[in-house]
Amino acid sequence: MIIVGAGPAGLTLATELRLVGVKPLVLDRLTEIREVAKAGGIGGQILNLLRYRELRDLLDDAAGAPVTAKLPFGGIHVDLTELGESPMQVQRLPQPQLEALLQNHVRGLGVEVRRGHEVTGLQQDDDAVHLEVQGPDGAYRVSAQYVVGCDGVRSRVRELAGVAFPGITYPEIHRLATVSMPPEITVRDDGDYDIPGYGRLAWGYSQTPGGIFAIASSEPGQLGLYTSEPPDREYDDDIPLTLNEFRDSVHRVLGTDIPLGEPRRLTRFTYAARHTERYVAGRVLLAGDAAHQIPTGGVAVSAGMLDGVNLAWKLAATIQGWAPAGLLDTYHSERHLAGDRLLLHAQAQVALRRGHDPANDALRKVFSELVSDAPALARVGAMIAASDVRYPMTGTQPHALAGTFASHVPDDVVAPLRAARPVFVGPPELCDVAAPWRDRVTILNHPAEALLIRPDAHIAWAGATDTGLQEALAHWFGDPR
Ligand SMILES: Cc1cc2nc3c(=O)[nH]c(=O)nc-3n(C[C@H](O)[C@H](O)[C@H](O)COP(=O)(O)OP(=O)(O)OC[C@H]3O[C@@H](n4cnc5c(N)ncnc54)[C@H](O)[C@@H]3O)c2cc1C
After folding, report:
1. Does 359 fall in a domain?
2. 379 part of a folded domain
3. Which domain holds residue 332?
4. 219-272, pLDDT tens digit by residue?
5. To the nearest whole percent, how much of the chain has pLDDT over 90?
6. Beta strands in 83-172 (DSSP E)
7. Looking at the 3D structure of the chain, how many domains does it have?
8. Does 150 share its domain with 287?
9. How confident is the model at residue 396 (pLDDT cuts 50, 70, 90)?
10. What is the CA radius of gyration of the chain?
């Protein structure tokens, strides 16, 4: 099978496919990973999931342990450090470094990542997908049983497969700059900034009559600055943001000039909320930004990685010939549900961020007041983390755990999950019921309540008796041999 796009979604999918015995070919049109400022790290549910994967050790080595942080939610800070146990942790690793780590990892697993190879055409029939590719040595054709488009927001694969990407693009223009810390700016003991010509400026996001301004220092000696404002004038997306354009934007938003150091990174972008109509279109599948465009920072990379984890074992089962009917379609139903939930809170963030009349200010005040209560804060944290997503499972009355993520498992369950193998854990009489699936499901004798856990660490079935167990095993792992 072929993955188009070696971004975080495509490379995570490739890693997961190797775990379950499939060796994909990865094609990317760029000759090298681009050193542009995009995501600063990953967080939430993907970190929980990676506790069950070797990749987590590599990420911890590169980025250090995940931390709980104050996070922006529509230009308001939600301080998850206030919670005893936060549902949302973040691991800081700039996107180019994350991609380099993932690329080295998959190449080490024997995956061929062809860079400088752009997909320009696609046809599919009953047996295969045929791609036209422009490579460094000219054009060629390559075919595969399945193709996954992980080729970003402007996905050529999605377009060529004729899949709609409905939604809305918001007009506000966002600009990000990382500059060296100007000597005139001082950081106060409480983390706020003293800025000559402006005075005290709060760390994080500030609403101003001109838009939104944000300031933070994530690395020593550097200053991160951000503006968001209504469209001032047309700009050409192909012309990179300059320091002068950024300075003008700061002036409009803050009403004054502030000292800016040497620019390290400058980016301009707009937000859109779009969701693919279909994650599965015959033999063509979509993952990552190709499937969903999220109008907020901090969550999109993790969502694309979770797409890869959800898809890999289902695709492998289909290619290896043991997938029960409809298994691959659950990739659409589950990830579309998760994407809808993501877009729900991201679009609520757009509403919180926009506008400067008294009604908008009142909305922000009410929201800030609500998240000062721990239960509401935990709920918002779980939404951002995507840890509140519950997939639909079999049975007329599924157990409360069915469809949820298996966050607490007995120690001996971890090893099979690290190999992305499904696990049944339960007392001996229920192990006997699961025994016919032994070649596909690791069966562990345990006196506690029984659980059937899928390779993506979601609970497919839970119970104290065997009611619905065989149905769940057959639904996810096919007929017993
Ligand atoms: C300024 C900015 C800030 C951001 N901040 C955050 C953040 O804080 N947190 C967060 O989670 N996300 C953030 N994002 C979003 C994040 O960068 C994306 O969600 C993420 O890159 C999506 O990963 P992906 O693998 O789906 O797609 P991409 O990273 O877009 O990768 C797609 C790959 O496909 C390749 N490709 C495209 N077309 C073809 C073709 N025809 N043939 C072959 N290859 C092709 C591209 O070269 C690319 O390598 C930010 C984005 C921007 C622009």
Report:
1. yes
2. yes
3. 2-69+79-167+274-385
4. 788 899 999 998 876 677 778 899 999 999 999 999 999 999 999 888 898 999
5. 79
6. 89-92, 112-115, 118-124, 129-135, 138-144, 147-149, 167-169
7. 3
8. yes
9. confident
10. 24
Question: Nearest Cα to 29, choosing from 52, 47, 51, 3?
Answer: 3
Dmax over CA atoms of the chain, in Å, equals 76
Spacing, Cα 41 to ligand 1 middle (Å): 13
For a pocket test of ligand 1, which of 46, 71, 95, 174 has the largest count of ligand atoms closer than 8 A to its C-beta? Answer: 95
Residue 6 Cβ < 6 Å to ligand 1: yes
Report the atom number in ligand 1 closest to the C-alpha of 287.
Answer: 26
Residue 261 tokens read as: 């150091």
Same domain, 52 and 191: no
Let me know whether 122 and 205 are in one domain: no
Most confident of 23-32, 70-79, 353-362: 23-32
- Cα–Cα distance between 221 and 215 in angstroms, integer? 14
Question: Tell me: the pLDDT tens digits for 151-207?
Answer: 999 999 999 999 999 999 998 899 999 999 999 999 998 889 999 888 999 888 888
ipTM of the complex: 0.99
Residue type, 151: D
Average pLDDT, the chain: 93
Position of tokens 């609970």? 459
Whole-angstrom Cα distance, residue 175 to residue 297? 13
Instruction: Establish whether residue 288 lines the binding site of ligand 1, counting it when its CB lies within 6 angstroms of any ligand atom.
Output: yes
Give the CA dihedral 31, 32, 35, 36, nearest 10 degrees. 40
At 180, list the tokens: 């060296």
Do the beta carbons of residue 91 and residue 41 sit within 8 Å? yes
- Please give the single-letter amino acid code of residue 464: A
Which residue from 11, 38, 98, 267 has its CB within 8 A of the most atoms of ligand 1, so it is best to mutate? 38
Q: What is the pLDDT of residues 13-27, one digit of tens each?
A: 999 999 999 999 999
Helical ranges in 29-184 per DSSP H: 45-50, 55-63, 95-108, 156-160
What 3-state class would DSSP assign to 449?
A: coil
* CATH classification at residue 230: 3.30.70.2450
- Rounded Cα gap, residues 216 and 196, in angstroms: 17
Our answer on whether the CB atom of 152 is closer than 6 Å to any ligand 1 atom is yes
Q: For residues 49 and 155, state if they share a domain.
A: yes
What count of other Cβ atoms lies within 10 Å of the Cβ of residue 441?
24
